[in-house]
Amino acid sequence: MMRESKPTIYDPSFLPNTIYSGVPSWLNLSVIENDEDLDGLDAAVIGVPWEGGCTIGGYSPTTEGPKAIRSASIRYTGYLPDYDQDCFDYLKVADFGDTPVHNGHYDFTFDAIREKVSKLLDKKVMPITFGGDHGIAYPIISEIAKRYPKKVGVLHFDAHLDNYEAYGDDLYARCSPFYRLYEDENMDPTKIVHIGIRGPRNHREEFQNAKTHGATVILANEVHENGWKKSIEKAIDIAFKDTEFVYVTICSDSLDAASMPQGPQDMGGLTSYQLNMMVHAAGVAGAKGFDFVEIYPDTLSLQTAAHVANWAALYYLNGLANNFR
């Protein structure tokens, strides 16, 4: 039996719930031990320690993301004084552990992701996923779209469009998940909004791909000049129009490098405040899934990236909780 779904800090006498040796569950929430434990949950955390084709050369330690995020999470509650609300007063959340991965083996890993997400969707449980590289967004969103054909909206926070047709002969690298979604028979690309795009690691081809498929691009400078509120209102209007399921996917480099020292280094990005406010607004609007990907947690000891991911998830959940009050 799972215990009550509350973070560890509410009761310091609790011993850590571990996902695997030395790694606590997210916020020390209950661990889902079998499929029956999904009954009655509103959301469940999934870790995907996946490293696919590395488009920045060599190796990036995205495989360590879920471990770092969980380890950093146990200092947090669900209470935000910003709204005088604790999301765990309204939402029951537990940790579903990690998806099996075989790094470099797309078929095995993406099938495993689909299977785990499918179990949540069957039980009407919303997925909260920590990666891993951004390639994992494709199987997650594609699996959701099977149940809601042409009715899925996406709020994609990133410095880059991640919509290359392919990276050499690699169709599923972290730079291509949105091209796969553009092509997915169950997706309507006009319901995809790319937010925070900027900088010299983009290419004209990506912007042409977005334009050709009808996706919306909100540049980082639009967020800075028009304000986060107007920007997310525009994005929500597009993603939620005539859809039944809206998903939030966040690459760490949507944030300015000053707020994300342990991820791809892209300047001129969103502040952590802007991101938290926008994902909270997405939760309030009723977005039903969330991921945070592409942190490189072994590059600095402060684990700033892992903490940023936890903050974003908690702001999203507190926004979502407004729909359960």
Q: Would you write up a description of this structure?
A:
There is one protein chain. With 325 residues, this protein is of the alpha/beta class. The protein has one domain: Ureohydrolase domain (Arginase, Chain A), CATH 3.40.800.10. It is 33% helix and 17% strand. The protein is built from 9 helices and 12 strands. It has helices spanning 65-73, 106-122, 137-147, 177-183, 204-213, 220-226, 228-240, 272-285, 304-321; strands at 18-20, 23-24, 43-48, 79-80, 85-86, 93-98, 126-131, 152-157, 192-197, 216-219, 245-251, 289-293. The protein has an 8-stranded parallel sheet with strand order 6-3-7-12-11-8-9-10, with helices on both faces. The chain starts with 17 loop residues before the first strand and ends with a helix.
Taking all residues together, what is the mean pLDDT?
A: 91
Q: Round the Cα radius of gyration to an integer and report it.
A: 18 Å
Helix content: 25-40%
Widest sheet: strand order? 6-3-7-12-11-8-9-10
CATH C-level class is Alpha Beta
Tell me which CATH architecture applies here: 3-Layer(aba) Sandwich
Going by CATH, what is the homologous superfamily? Ureohydrolase domain
Instruction: Give the biggest sheet.
Output: 8 strands, parallel
**Discrete helix count:** 9
